Amino acid sequence: MPAKRDLPSKVCPVCGRPFAWRRKWAKDWAQVKYCSDACRKGTPRGRAAETR
């Protein structure tokens, strides 16, 4: 298993946070857009929620 820093990553378009590849996303990493179900539903938490 490669080190966590060597895994591919993306930036969530809703909250703007980077997120790393996970084993459960191995088959469809190209289609993964959001870091969490909350961001997928449009209800982000954290920094982005505070600015709204």
Structure described in brief:
This protein is α+β, with helices and mostly antiparallel strands and 52 residues long. The chain has helices spanning 37-41, 47-50, and strands spanning 9-11, 18-20.
Tags for this entry?
52 residues, alpha+beta, globular, two-stranded antiparallel sheet, single chain
In words, what does this structure look like?
The chain is α+β, with helices and mostly antiparallel strands and 52 residues long. Helix content is 17%, strand content 12%. The chain has helices spanning 37-41, 47-50; strands at 9-11, 18-20. Strands 1-2 form a two-stranded antiparallel ribbon. Strand 1 and strand 2 (18-20) form a beta hairpin. The longest helix has 5 residues, at 37-41. The radius of gyration is 12 Å and the shape is globular. The model has no long low-confidence stretch (mean pLDDT 83).
Radius of gyration (Å): 12 Å
**CA distance, first residue to last residue:** 39 Å
Q: Give the percentage of residues in beta strands.
A: 5-15%
Oligomer: single chain
Largest sheet: 2 strands, antiparallel
Query: What is the count of DSSP helices, taking H or I runs of 4+ residues?
Result: 2
Structural class by SSE content: alpha+beta
Task: Name the shape in a single word.
Answer: globular
Helix content: 10-25%
Number of strands: 2
* Chain-averaged pLDDT: 83
